[in-house]
Amino acid sequence: RSSWLLLAPLLTPPVPVITAPPCSLCPEGAHRFQWIGNLVPEFGISSSHVKVLSSPAEFYELLKVQIKSAKQRVVMASLYLGTGLLEQELVDCLEETLEKSLQAKGSSNLRVSILLDYTRGSRGRKNSRTMLVPLLQRFPEQVRVSLFHTPNLRGLLRLLIPERFNETIGLQHIKVYLFDDNVILSGANLSDLYFTNRQDRYVLLQDSPEIADFFTELVDAIGDVSLQLQRDDTVQMMEGMVHPYRGDKVAYCEIANRRVMEVINSARTRQELLHAKTFHSSQQGSSLLSQKSSQASRDLKPEPDTWIYPLIQMKPFGIQIDEMVTETLLTEAERDARIYLTTGYFNLTQAYMDLILGTRAEYRILLASPEVNGFFGAKGVAGAIPAAYVYIEHQFYSEVCYLHQQERVQLQEYSRAGWTFHAKGLWLYLAGSDLPCLTLIGSPNFGYRSVHRDLEAQVAIVTENKALQQQLHQEQEQLYLCSGVVSSSTFEQPNRYVKLWVKLVTPLIKNFF
């Protein structure tokens, strides 16, 4: 497997970059971000329903607790499910919960839906599929496993590219884990590293039925256009559905676009009607409230002080909402605002780089040092990927210096012995504020893959609540504490040496990692 194999993906056509339309932000406080609701549903919740987690172990324990307590639904979307003991324990939890559900009622109401990527989930003899087949065999009426296959991997390209390398063309990269009405948004996959020593981000939205419904419908929509895992470990499409790599590509992408946009638009309509109804009720509430008993008053839902906006990016299907919102946030960030942006794989799109270098806000960009990059120490060509990221980082840093922006745009490298780094997202601090009022959290890395190739989802969390803002601030501080500021001397260290062939190949392949 020589390095020329990395060039095979170049057979796919390049995708043009788009720029988000200009947007006029509303004045004052968190509500300046209400424009996001013009594109996606807006979910108003109480900040008391939001919990920020900090460690892989906390994330893993929460997954197990939530699975065991689920009564109606378990929906999990991830790149893949690992094959170790910790992952098997998760599967055992699912089996135990399904079994209890059957015993309790004779016929269970509990439904389990799992969405993974086909290529990553099929890698190796023991893989995500073999881990889940026993569940399908034992609970065929309750369990669904969908494996998304990118429509861009087809024909000669599919025949030429070997396992692992075929994952460069496009993936199902969304990470959402929901249990009844509780939703976990994260960038972490269902694998032992993400449960032990691979640092990521995790937010739990508790008792949020509308948000849980939205992500259930989103996973169902992607599942409907995905291959369905069968009890004998084969796969097949749902009856009447266009095949992702054997069928007509344009027809498949149109169907997928329609299914996903139906979910987004119907949820947006529902939320707008709910907001209108709530507003109308509140207008009458002052005269009615005095007639209510004190107990009824306590039963009223608290006024929302936090808003959740789901941002979807599926460029293969022509859906670019996350890209538009992210570009607009970067464009509209005011002078003296601070943006803390983090990614495990520093490979920003040209549009994002131009906005960071050409706008007025201060940036603190956290990225992985070579030693905590997930590809560090990998065999073969993959072992050179950390060096490629160093080269990309050095080029960006040189541009920052050339433009004399070192004070405004600062790079910081995460470094922690025995750990790898996978956290992604951003925190936005308005001018004059010591706390963030907005964060983005989910699967996108702000790179070419996230924007152009993979299926991605994250949420914008906007809050006016000081306690939640403090949680988000502490999360940011905890991550940045494990970092050092990048300077010219950083790239003079022996471990930053980049071989000539890596420098030559990186511009050709940077769109694929």
What labels would you give this structure?
2 domains; disordered N terminus; 513 residues; 38% helix; alpha+beta; 10-stranded mixed β-sheet; 21 strands; single chain; Endonuclease, Chain A; globular; 9-stranded mixed β-sheet
Brief sketch in words of this structure:
38% of the residues lie in helices and 19% in strands. The chain is of the alpha+beta class and 513 residues long.
Describe what this molecule looks like in 3D.
One of its GO terms (biological process) is cardiolipin biosynthetic process. Functions in the biosynthesis of the anionic phospholipids phosphatidylglycerol and cardiolipin. This is CDP-diacylglycerol--glycerol-3-phosphate 3-phosphatidyltransferase. It comes from Nestor notabilis. The protein has two domains: 43-266, 2-Layer Sandwich (Endonuclease, Chain A); 304-512, 2-Layer Sandwich (Endonuclease, Chain A). The model is unreliable at 1-30 (pLDDT under 50). The two termini are 18 Å apart. With 513 residues, it is α+β, with helices and mostly antiparallel strands. Helix content is 38%, strand content 19%. Strands 1, 12, 13, 14, 15, 16, 18, 19, 20 and 21 form a ten-stranded mixed β-sheet that branches. A nine-stranded mixed β-sheet has the order 2-9-7-6-3-4-5-10-11, with helices on both faces. The longest helix is centred in the middle third of the chain and has 41 residues, at 249-289. The protein is globular. It has 15 helices and 21 strands.
